[in-house]
TrEMBL record:
Keyword Transit peptide listed: no
InterPro entries reported for this sequence: ArAA_b-elim_lyase/Thr_aldolase, Low_specificity_L-TA-like, PyrdxlP-dep_Trfase, PyrdxlP-dep_Trfase_major, PyrdxlP-dep_Trfase_small
Organism field: Vibrio navarrensis
Cofactor(s) for this UniProt protein: pyridoxal 5'-phosphate
Taxonomic lineage from the root: Bacteria, Pseudomonadati, Pseudomonadota, Gammaproteobacteria, Vibrionales
Single annotated GO MF: L-allo-threonine aldolase activity
Domain (Aromatic amino acid beta-eliminating lyase/threonine aldolase) ranges: 2-283
UniProt name for this protein: Threonine aldolase
Summary of subunit composition and partner proteins: Homotetramer.
NCBIfam families according to UniProt: GntG_guanitoxin (NF041359), PRK10534.1 (NF007825)
Keyword Nucleotide-binding: no
Amino acid sequence: MDFRSDTVTQPTPAMREAMANAVVGDDVYGDDPTVNELEAFAASETGFEAALFTTSGTQANLLGLMSHCERGDEYLCGQQAHNYRYEAGGAAVLGSIQPQPIENNPDGTLPFDKLAAAIKPDDSHFARTKLLSLENTINGKVLPLSYLQQARAFTNKHGLKMHLDGARVYNAAVALDVPVREIAQYFDSMTICLSKGLAAPVGSLLLGSKEYITKARRLRKMVGGGMRQAGILAAAGKLALTEQVSQLKTDHDNAKALAHGLATLPGFDVNPQWVQTNIVFAKLDDGVDIATIAQKLKQEQIIVSPGNPIRFVTHKDIRREDIDRLLSVLRSHL
Ligand SMILES: *Cc1c(COP(=O)(O)O)cnc(C)c1O
C-alpha cells in the first residue's frame, strides 16, 4: 500500500497486453502509428488542434513554456506551481525564461490584482510578460470553471497567452463531472500526465495549435526527447485516456473516506471539505512523531512520505479496504 503518490501505479493487464501487441515505427520520422493515434485522440478529446507525446510532465511543461516564450520573456505562475518549484528551474535554465511567481490563494487560484501588478510595462528594464501558467488540479484542489473564464478574459485583456499544467486535469474534470474539454477550452496550451492516476507506465502530452506543437516537436528533439518505437508506451497511454478515467471517481471517494477517517485521529487536523480529488493533506500536532510512525507503517507494508503537513494520495492500487487498514494501523501507533 503506497500512499506517496499516484505515480506509483502499476500498468493494468490491458495496458501490458496493448504494449506487447502495439504496432510501432520510428516516431522521430513520424512513422509510429500508435503514437500518432494517441496524439490525434488526445487532441480531439481535449479540443486542441494537435498533441505531442513527451517523456514526462516536466518535459511537457518545459516544451510548453519554451514554445510560448523566447529568451528574456517571462511567465506568471503560482508560488506553489509545479513548473516553478519542482522542475529544477528548467524554464529558466534551458529556456532563459523568467518565472514571476504570485502567492496562491488557499483554493489554488491566483488573484487578478496581484497578477495585473506583476505584468511588466514595455520598457528595456524589464522582462517581457508573455504568459499566465495555471495548474489544475493544484495540490488536489480544482480550479472553478468560473475562475478559468475570468482568467481567460484577464489574459485577453493583457495580451497574454494562457497555459495549463494539467498533470491531473482528468481528476479536475471527473470532480466537476464535465468533459475535459470544458476545462481545456480556456487555454492556448495544456499538459496531461498519463503516468499518474491514469496508470500508464511512462508519458505525458502537450496540447495546442498545430503551429505551436510543431515548435514544441523541434524543442523536444533538442532536449533529447525524440523517441523511436514509442508506440509501446503510447499504447498504454491511450488506455489511460479511455479505460482509466472512470477509476478517478473511486480514487476521489477513497480520498474523501481517508480524510474523514484521519479527522478522527488524535493530533491529525484535516478538513475533508478541502478534499476534492485524490490528495489529502493532514496537519500534525507537534506531539505526532511522523518519522517514527512512517517506519512502523513500513514494517506493515504501508508506505507514506513523512512530513508536516503529511500528504496521502489515492490511486487505482489503493482499495477501500486499504484505507481502513491504514487508519487502524495509524491509530494503533498514536
Ligand atoms: C507530476 C507533475 C508534473 C510533472 O510530471 P513528471 O511526469 O513527474 O515529470 C507536472 N505538474 C504537476 C502539477 C505534477 O503533479
